[in-house]
Amino acid sequence: MTNKKETLKIVTWNCKGKFIERFEKFEENKEFEADVYVIQECLNPTQSDCKNEKFKDFSKGALWSDSPIDTRFGLGLGIFGKNIKNNNWERKDQDLGHCISFNVDGKINLLGIWGRWYGHGCVADRLYDYLKNADKLDSDYIIVGDMNIDAKYPTQSPECKKQTGTVFKFLNEDKKLVSAYHTYFQEDHAKETKETFYFRKNKDKGTSHIDYVFVNKNTKIINVKLGDESWLNDSDHVPLFVEIELP
How many domains does the chain have? Predict the structure, then answer.
């Protein structure tokens, strides 16, 4: 009898500050039950007055990052899961947004990202620069988050949309990392049939695919799912779920 392979289930979702209030929605939707949750626009779980005992237990050991610009809103990047620990190597980059390097069980390394626009410029440029200079980022890392880059993003300049392809090429060729969504559904970048972001919660105003999970190109991807439009009651993003087989 062969041993069943271990898997890792990952969810990333930009929650618009609603993760604590909508935690029960994940409880109800068992299809999005994960080992690791990378949550953007997340309120600090340790400073919450949440009375939900399940959430208090769920958020024990959570990692959270803010920045001077986002502090006034109380929002940041939250990492939730069992046996997670901060790797503490990420380069602080106020112009990019939030990045947390962490591991699961001391052996699976991930980089959680919430890419942000601060002032003028192109977030794809800043993300490319960040990833190029992340010396410890290798092909065994899993990159997860709302990167805010897409060749179809409604408000981005043509130059910035084009630069998204540079980020993809760098990750694919230099780091040997591929997007789980694009690999699983066999779709090309910029030709996605399923979107993660609905501009102003209205698909008629524009949609994009700006949330990603990048894994080693040799990784077996078991499942990839996106939330339906009912999630737009809470945010302008839907959750992205990825399950992979561990080596």
Answer: 1
- Does 51 have pLDDT greater than 60? yes
In a domain, 101, yes or no: yes
Instruction: Read off the pLDDT of residues 132-179 as tens digits, 9 standing for 90 and up.
Output: 999 899 999 999 999 999 888 777 788 888 899 999 999 999 999 999
Specify whether the CB–CB gap between 122 and 159 falls below 8 A.
Answer: yes
Quick check: is 1 in a domain? Answer: no
From the list 26, 35, 13, 130, the residue with the least C-alpha distance to 81 is 35
Say what the pTM is.
0.93
Distances in whole angstroms, Cα of residue 46 to Cα of each of 11, 61, 80, 92, 130: 21, 9, 12, 22, 28
- Residue pair 197/207 in contact (Cβ under 8 Å)? The answer is yes
**Residue 108 forms part of a structural domain:** yes
Residue 64 sits in a domain whose CATH number is 3.60.10.10
In this predicted model, which residue has the larger pLDDT, 243 or 66? 243
